[in-house]
Amino acid sequence: MDNDVASPTSIDGDVDEDDYAPFSSSTEVAAIAAVDLADIDSGNVAAVDASRDALHLADESEVDGTNAKSNERTMLREQTWLNIMYLSLFSIIGSSLRVFMGRIFGADCDLNVEGGQINDFLWPSSHTICITASGKTEQYGGALFIDLPANMLGSFIMGCNVGRLADWPAIPFLAYNHPLQSDKGLHMGITTGFCGSLTTLSSWNSQMVMMMNGNANPYLGSQVIAALFGYILGLQTSLVSFRAGRAFAAFVHAKRNPDHDSYGNEIRWRHYHNHLYWIIPVILLIVSGTLIAVYVAGDMYWDILYYRQVWIACILAPFGTLLRWKLSAWNGTLSFPLGTFLSNFMASIVSAAITALDAYQRFPLLQKNV
């Protein structure tokens, strides 16, 4: 041959693998070796150069793949922190709404409320409604427990955001192509954070147990029948509210998006980066911070003991919500939602312990029986 070409081959045509050590994969080594051997036999130097160019492009592709993986990890980390923020802030708002709904519908009618009546803006109207009761009062003991309205509202909102079909937009009030439809952190904040904190099983269960026990209200005694109806009504109203929320979402969805019945993956996997991505968490942070500041002022400045309980509940709410979020990963392991069961089980134990301690301190009858 007229043109000698440097090649990582031995005299007998065998490939020396050590000469290909700098290459990153066995596939690249085999490809370059095959091209080199073929081109040396034919004396085609240009083909050898082309093979080197192909290797250079492969290296660039590998670098691009590494950068893509790095960007994916960054986006995943960013989304995780955004989820935590949504869950925490929505849990504070949900907890606040639950305790005030309890007051509006009957908690202010409790004659045994610690610290006496709550002299704030809500008292003049709330202490006359008296729809629900905790089972501790002399006159209003009954099956409509304190947290019934909150459970109904939370179940309704949950139904609105779940939808009747898996590929329906998560927020039925917005257009199907609205950027917020693809904000999974916002959806999780509304359902797991807000609705999960607005609704309660543990407090409801504790109220029913106190009613059946009867020591909290010696005038009414054990209210077993009322407590059993409380369980039945609680389950039925929550289920009906959830189904009503789904039906309402279907109605709004049909009105809001008349030309779109199914969207498949059109918006499910879309990720957006615009002003809405961070402005909503900032607004939620301002609202949550303002609520806690008002509650602390009510405790420290106006000396209303009730607000101390509220701001402490708001501080602790994000921890319970994040635990519930992590436990939800176990929901698909068995035929029933194990994660939800464990979170409610632990919450019921904590609620029962706090209720027992509170009852021991507030009712002398329990102290005599201990």
Automatic annotation (TrEMBL):
<keyword id="KW-1003">Cell membrane</keyword>
<dbReference type="GO" id="GO:1903425">
    <property type="term" value="F:fluoride transmembrane transporter activity"/>
</dbReference>
<keyword id="KW-0472">Membrane</keyword>
<comment type="function">
    <text>Fluoride channel required for the rapid expulsion of cytoplasmic fluoride.</text>
</comment>
<feature type="transmembrane region" description="Helical">
    <location>
        <begin position="81"/>
        <end position="101"/>
    </location>
</feature>
<feature type="transmembrane region" description="Helical">
    <location>
        <begin position="304"/>
        <end position="323"/>
    </location>
</feature>
<dbReference type="GO" id="GO:0005886">
    <property type="term" value="C:plasma membrane"/>
</dbReference>
<feature type="transmembrane region" description="Helical">
    <location>
        <begin position="335"/>
        <end position="357"/>
    </location>
</feature>
<dbReference type="InterPro" id="IPR003691">
    <property type="entry name" value="FluC"/>
</dbReference>
<feature type="transmembrane region" description="Helical">
    <location>
        <begin position="276"/>
        <end position="298"/>
    </location>
</feature>
<comment type="similarity">
    <text>Belongs to the fluoride channel Fluc/FEX (TC 1.A.43) family.</text>
</comment>
<dbReference type="Pfam" id="PF02537">
    <property type="entry name" value="CRCB"/>
</dbReference>
<feature type="transmembrane region" description="Helical">
    <location>
        <begin position="224"/>
        <end position="242"/>
    </location>
</feature>
<protein>
    <submittedName>
        <fullName>Uncharacterized protein</fullName>
    </submittedName>
</protein>
<keyword id="KW-1133">Transmembrane helix</keyword>
<keyword id="KW-0812">Transmembrane</keyword>
